[in-house]
Write a structure and sequence with these properties.
single chain, mainly beta
Length: about 350
């Protein structure tokens, strides 16, 4: 039975209901089509990933398609195997005779289809022929690749390629002689800054005026850490282990004794009293980066993970990865929906 196509709006609504973090975004970034999860980032680089069976209790074998928005870009097709150290992998399509395409090592546990074979493999995946993947001499495993076309149509739409020769699926019916390939957006650049821990707040902070679940007077709340972001701004993390949200973050600026909740770009509009709140958040002072993850329920294999860096004036988003369904896919392989080019601290 075919599984329906749905989008990240379902996840956002669930998270908003669970955490009270506001409405879902108007333009979902990730869709699910059968076994495929697909989305694009802010530079129009698009990724689709399908999960196969788990290797014992480990992570599942993954099949990933990545397509750049540049003219004449060739799809990058990669097999990802947990603890894979074989000399090759093979994609085996059911046919008479079988069609076998070899993938070569491309980093730890990854095997990439050669560029010369990429278009033929993509056609095979779109044909819905049964597919097996073999890693080295191990037995081949079946992986469900049905309903790829809706994911590729999503690529075409997000890359502004619908009805053009550059589209993967929605190509024009006839020949187009006067064709201008759209220029993809560029990733913003953010310079990272090292933060320094401080022992005491120098500006006479009035914590009694702080709002939210981590405010003074809430049972279990405590001021845990403070860091100098630069010579005028301090980042304050307040922990609230007995409240519904684990951490609330503030900026105290020189000359302003009242700490202000951090505005986290990309987060849903906060409800009353939850400004500055993040779930599963940690601060990495050596680079000035805050990372946070909101899981779906108690599952670690689905949700949204985001990262922000201090740019001298505010926290700027530098990375967002999303996984709206729980299929055992490790966080490092979630769909990238936003990225910035980061410059290391001096």
């Amino acid at each position: 039975m075919l599984r329906p196509v749905f989008c990240l709006r379902t996840l956002w609504l669930a998270l908003a209901t669970l955490f009270g973090t506001g409405a879902a975004p108007a333009d979902p970034a990730v869709i699910v089509s059968g076994n495929w999860i697909a989305g694009c980032d802010n530079t129009n680089i698009c990724t689709a990933i399908a999960a196969g069976p788990r290797a014992g209790r480990g992570d599942p074998v993954l099949l990933k398609i990545r397509h750049h928005p540049n003219q004449d870009a060739i799809p990058e097709i990669t097999v990802i195997a947990p603890d894979g150290d074989a000399a090759f992998a093979e994609l085996i399509f059911a046919a008479t005779p079988e069609r076998v395409y070899r993938a070569v090592p491309d980093g730890a546990g990854a095997y990439r289809i050669l560029s010369d074979d990429a278009w033929a493999v993509l056609i095979g995946l779109r044909s819905d022929r049964p597919l097996r993947i073999r890693i080295g001499a191990a037995p081949a495993i079946a992986i469900d690749t049905h309903l790829l076309d809706p994911a590729l149509v999503h690529f075409d739409r997000e890359q502004d390629l619908e009805g053009t020769p550059g589209a993967l699926v929605t190509k024009p019916d006839g020949m187009i002689l006067d064709y201008w390939h759209p220029r993809p957006p560029e990733a913003p650049a953010v310079k990272l800054r090292t933060a320094v821990s401080v022992d005491a707040l120098p500006h006479g902070t009035r914590w009694d005026l702080a709002e939210g679940p981590c405010a003074r007077g809430v049972p279990g709340s405590s001021l845990t850490s403070e860091w100098w972001l630069d010579d005028r701004n301090i980042l304050i993390q307040r922990n609230c282990p007995l409240a519904s949200a684990p951490t609330q973050w503030f900026i105290e600026r020189a000359g302003d004794p009242m700490p202000r909740p951090v505005d986290w770009p990309g987060e849903p509009r906060p409800s009353r009293g939850s400004k500055g709140v993040l779930y599963g958040a940690f601060f990495f002072a050596s680079e000035g980066i805050v990372r946070a993850t909101r899981h779906i329920g108690r599952r670690a294999d689905c949700g949204i993970t985001e990262a922000w860096a201090w740019d001298g004036e505010a926290f700027a988003m530098i990375d967002r990865r999303e996984m709206p369904v729980c299929r055992g896919i490790p966080q490092k392989h979630w769909i990238v929906t936003y990225r910035a080019d980061t410059i290391s601290p001096d």
